[in-house]
Amino acid sequence: MCELLVGWGVSTSSGPVAAPQIDGYEFRGVLGMGGFSTVYLYEQLRPRREVAIKVLTTAALTAEGRRRFEIESDLMAALSAHPYIVTIHDAAITDDGSPYLVMEYYPGANLGLRARSERIGLAEVLQVGIHIASAVESAHRIGIIHRDIKPANVLTSRYNRPGLSDFGVSTSASTGEHNEVALSIPWSPPEAFDPTLSLDFRADVYSLGAFIYSLLCGRAPFEIVGGDNTLEAVTDRILNADPQAIGREDVPAEMERLLMQAMARNPDLRPGSALALAQTLQAVELDLSLPPSQIDVMEEISPSAAALGSDSQAEPTQLRMVTLTPVTLAAVDLPAQPLDHTRLYEPVVDGETVAIDQHPRRKPLVLLAALGVGLLVLLAGMAIARAGGTDTEVTPSIPSTISTPTPTPVASEVAATMAPTPTTPAVSEPAANTNGNGKNDGKGPKDKPGKGPKGR
Questions:
Q1: Are 191 and 204 spatial neighbours (Cβ–Cβ below 8 Å)?
Q2: Where are the extended beta strands (E) located within 303-399?
Q3: For residue 356, what pLDDT is reported?
C-alpha cells in the first residue's frame, strides 16, 4: 500500500500526542509529528544535554510497527559513527509500552523547510549532496537500503552539518522485502510502485538525485507549480514523464545531466552507486573552483588487518571510516546523453575504489621523453670527446638537465619535455683541452668554422 507522506517537514497532524514520562529526561517541547511517530525535545539529566526522543504513536503500536521501530534503532546504531547520519544514544520502552529512540538533537531547520522558504546556494547544495550520498553509500556497504531519502529527513546540526535520519522504512538488501510500506511519493523511483518488486541500492540513487534536485528548485522533480499535484497525478508523471528542467543559471549542464541520469526510469541507466554520484558531484565542485567536499564511507577490514592495529583479538568483520581522494570533471567526461558511470571508476580492488587517472598515459610518456633527451645529450658529449683525440680518456657524466618528472606535470611541462633537442648540446667542454697544468696540449678539438668561439 502506498501512502503519500509529507516530505517537506510540514506537519498535517491535528496536534501532538502527550509527551511520555521518561526516567532521566525532562520534557521541553514538540519537534515534529508524522504518521507513525512524534519527535519531542527533552533534556537529558545525566550527562546534561538536549536530545530528540522519537516515540512510536499509538496508531503504529502494531506487531509490524514495533518490528520496524526495532529495525530502525538497530540500523541507526550500526551507522551512528558516520558524521552525516544522526547519532542514536539509546532505545527503550516507556512505562505505557511505547517504544522510543533517544537521538542527537539537531536544532537547525530540516532541509525541506529551508528549500521551501529560501533559495539554497549551489555550493551548499553540492556539499550537502556529497555528504548525504556518502552516508547512503556507507549504509549500502553494510547492506542497508534507506528507501526514504527526502529533504525533511535531512536535519541540520548546531555546527551546520547535515544529518540523515528516519530509517523507519529501511530494510536489509538481503531480505528481498517487497514494496509494501509507506512511500514518500515525490522522491520515490518508478519501481517502488510495483508491489511485486524488491528495491535495491539503485532506488536510493534515484531518491538522492530527486533530493538534490529539490534543494535546487524548492519543489519535487514532478511537482508542477499551480498544477495538479495530487497523489495520482504525481505518480503518473513519475512512471511516464521526465523531470522538468532545473531552471537555474548557476547550475552547470554537467550537474543537471547527472541528476537527470540519477532519476532515469530504467534503474540500469542510473549511476551504479551512491559513491559514483558523490564523486561526480565532487568533480563538479572542482570544475567550479570550489573546495571539494569530503567523502567519508565505511569499508570492511579483514581480521588480520584489524589485528595489526589492536592488541585485542579481531572480530570476524570490522569497519573503518575512510576518506576518498577527489577526481576532476575532466576524468568524468560527461557526454551529452546520460553518462556511463562505468567510465568513472576502476573495479574495486582490495576494498578500495580507484579513480581513473585523467591522463593515464602521461607519466610513461614524460619519463620516456626525459630519458630520450638525456641519452641524446650523453651521446653528443661522447662524440665531442672522441673528436678531440684518443690520447685523453673522457669519462662522460649524466648531465644535470635530466631530472625526475613530477608525478602530475601540467601540459606546459609535458610540451617543454617533448621539445626538440637544441643544436648546441647542453654540456660543458670536455676536459681533453688541458694536460693538467692548464696549458693546451694541442690534442683538443680544433675550432671549426661556425662552431668554435672564433667562427670564420
A1: no
A2: 318-323
A3: 34
| Structure confidence at residue 164 (pLDDT) | 94
Helix H or strand E encompassing 171: strand 171-172
pLDDT for position 78 = 83
C-alpha cell, 193: 510502485
| H or E element that contains 79 | helix 63-79
HEC assignment per residue over 191-219: HHHCCCCECCHHHHHHHHHHHHHHHHHCC
Helices (H), 80-186: 111-117, 122-141
In angstroms, the CA 374 to CA 397 distance is 11
Residue where the block lists cell 523511483 = 189
Residues listed for the chain: 456
- Residue 410: the pLDDT is 41
Identity of residue 188: S
**Cα angle 453, 454, 456; round to 5:** 130
91 beta partners: 101
Closest to 5 in 3D by CA, of 31, 44, 33, 42: 33
State the SS3 of 138-156. HHHHCCEECCCCCHHHEEE
At 171, which amino acid appears? T
In which residue are the cell numbers 533517544 written?
102
Contacts of residue 377, defined as CB under 8 A and 6 or more positions apart, other chains included, come to 399, 401, 402, 421, 425, 426, 427
Chunked mean pLDDT (size 10), the chain, 456 residues: 42 63 95 85 96 83 78 82 92 88 94 96 98 95 89 94 80 53 85 88 96 97 94 95 94 96 96 96 96 87 49 48 61 46 36 39 52 77 66 46 44 45 46 47 49 46
Write the Ramachandran bin of 265: left for phi over 0, alpha for psi from -120 to 50, otherwise beta: alpha
Nearest-Å Rg of the Cα atoms of the chain is: 32
Tell the residue number behind the cell numbers 551546520, with chain if given: 160
Q: Which domains does the chain have, with CATH numbers?
A: 25-104 (3.30.200.20), 111-343 (1.10.510.10), 362-433 (no CATH)
**Would you call the peptide bond into 47 cis, given omega within 30 degrees of 0 as the criterion?**
yes
- Can you tell me the distance from the alpha carbon of 369 to that of 364, in angstroms, rounded to the nearest whole number? 9
Residue with cell 602530475: 408
Quick check: 64 and 45 in contact, CB under 8 A?
no
Burial 307-335 (b: 16+ CB within 10 A, else e): eeeeeeebeeebbeeeebebbebebbebe
Alpha helices in 17-110 (DSSP H): 63-79
